[in-house]
Amino acid sequence: MNFRQLYEPESSTYTYLFGCRDTGEAVLLDPVLETLDRDLSALQDLGLRLAYTLETHIHADHVTSACRLRSITGCKVAYPELDGLPCADVGVSEVNPLSVGHLTFNPLYTPGHTDSHHSYLIDVPGVTRVFTGDALLIDGCGRTDFQGGDAAALYRSIHEKIFTLPGETLVYPAHDYQHRHVSTVEQERERNPRLGAGKSLDEFIQIMSDLNLPYPKRIDIALPANRMCGDCPDEAEIMRAEPEGPSIQG
């Protein structure tokens, strides 16, 4: 498998590029509009053809490049089936994984940050990776106070779907504000200050309640755009908008 972790600094977003070496097909997970040219260059450099874009959830901090990538490359746009987006070509769920070449993206329903959030488990020989979106971050987690967020649901999602994975499973989040790249399930179980070290549900709910995070700065642009797979806003307006920064995590 070809694999690249790509970073967008304004929203501190990680986009992940996966390529099947046998078929030359590729997937971009959580692509960002501002890095469209970079992602196209990465595909070209690796000799890959983009088959799908894939999202963990409808983002509030950046606009996806899914529709523009579809227009340019002919790829298909995949979203969690629960989002019910007419603009999506494919809906994924725990019973409907996404297979591209010899790669399989196994969705894990992990609501709490949003009510339809999914993480993705990819198991290739020698290494298992889980891409946790905004649900589980390195030493943190996504906020739970908008988009159908629910602290109790997030606690259950992480403990039942992610913390039950083997400890050596690599954890790749959708954001990191300190330029960290990867963690492990064992590390997050042991030391995550919000969820690890045996934190109870009541403790977690109190932690999330006390965050008092500001209103996301780009939500009024990003949410309407992302409900149309990134195809509705004026691009210049997006580029001028102030980035959200660390308020997803708090």
UniProtKB/TrEMBL annotation:
Q: Which cofactor does it need?
A: Fe(2+)
Q: Does the keyword Transit peptide apply?
A: yes
Q: Gene3D superfamilies under this entry?
A: Ribonuclease Z/Hydroxyacylglutathione hydrolase-like
Record SMART domains: Lactamase_B
User: What highest taxon heads this organism's lineage?
Assistant: Bacteria
Regions crossing the membrane: none
What InterPro entries does the record tag this protein with?
A: Metallo-B-lactamas (IPR001279), Mito_Persulfide_Diox (IPR051682), POD-like_MBL-fold (IPR044528), RibonucZ/Hydroxyglut_hydro (IPR036866)
| Record GO biological process | glutathione metabolic process; hydrogen sulfide metabolic process
Task: List residues of the Metallo-beta-lactamase domain.
Answer: 12-175
Keywords, comma-separated and alphabetical: Acetylation, Dioxygenase, Hydrolase, Iron, Metal-binding, Oxidoreductase, Transit peptide
A GO MF term:
sulfur dioxygenase activity
Q: Which PANTHER family match?
A: PERSULFIDE DIOXYGENASE ETHE1, PERSULFIDE DIOXYGENASE ETHE1, MITOCHONDRIAL
Q: Which family does it belong to?
A: Belongs to the metallo-beta-lactamase superfamily. Glyoxalase II family.
Per its record, how is this protein called by name?
Glyoxylase-like metal-dependent hydrolase (Beta-lactamase superfamily II)
The organism of origin for this protein: Hephaestia caeni
